[in-house]
Amino acid sequence: MSASSKRHLQSDGTKAKRARPSEQDIAAFAPIPELVRPNLDVLFVGINPGVISGQRQLHFGNPSNFIWKGLYESGLIPEMIQPEHGDRLFSEWNMSIVNLVQRTTPSASDLTLREMRDAVPELRRKISANRPKIICFVGMGIYRAFASKSKVELGLQHEVYEYERIKDSDEFPEFGHMFVMPSTSGRTRAYQNAEKLMYFRQLKYIRDCVAASPQPMPIDHDRLAALGPQVRSRYFTTR
């Protein structure tokens, strides 16, 4: 057993529980640093940091969050990574992560609707300034607040996010595709991981189309639909 493992054992040999931060500690957590630049292939938008993320200062900081497995198993990234290596999304694979709300809370349900709506203008500013090809909202509630809609469908949205036209420039996209997937948190019980993975596979197909070189390819919506779940149900299972 390594020395680091021994430090986490109690005198009776059982593993010691990590002390949970107090409410005051959680309130004092700094916003998680965000890495953004123009022309990202995918910009993921999370709702806000949970306690583990805020404590570790990492996006989706809990290794059990399905986003990491979804990225790898869908082929969006070529190898499985842990949250502490999440900056590789930015440095190697032209993707990144931001949050709608910067404040850390024990649960996303601790956020008020007003707090989420008040955060939308800053998120729109980041998106408009950096012009990602795809904006992926990791949770339906995020997109509801962003688009001021009460009813939201999962998957590729019909509307696009239009950018201010840059005269005589083909370097940056004129719009960003908007994609909504279920929350990847383990607390989200309405969608099983097998179904969540289908949305990652749809996203990977869209990414491959819009990032194709030398020119983007059109999205085949029949092929896109075939990659996704045929029945969107909380009781979805694979057989």
Automatic annotation (TrEMBL):
Offer an example of a GO molecular function term for this protein.
G/T mismatch-specific thymine-DNA glycosylase activity
What top-tier enzyme class does this entry carry? hydrolase
Q: Which Gene3D superfamilies match?
A: Uracil-DNA glycosylase-like domain
State the EC number(s): 3.2.2.29
GO BP: base-excision repair, AP site formation
Keyword match DNA repair: yes
Which residues lie within the region annotated Disordered? 1-22
Which InterPro entries does the record cross-reference, listed alphabetically? MUG/TDG, Uracil-DNA_glycosylase-like, Uracil-DNA_glycosylase-like_sf
Any idea where the Uracil-DNA glycosylase-like domain is? 35-197
Q: Which UniProt keywords apply?
A: DNA damage, DNA repair, Glycosidase, Hydrolase
Tree of life domain: Eukaryota
PANTHER family named in the record:
G/T AND G/U MISMATCH-SPECIFIC DNA GLYCOSYLASE, G_T MISMATCH-SPECIFIC THYMINE DNA GLYCOSYLASE
Name the chain's protein: Uracil DNA N-glycosylase Thp1
- Organism annotation: Coemansia erecta
- The gene from which this protein is expressed is thp1
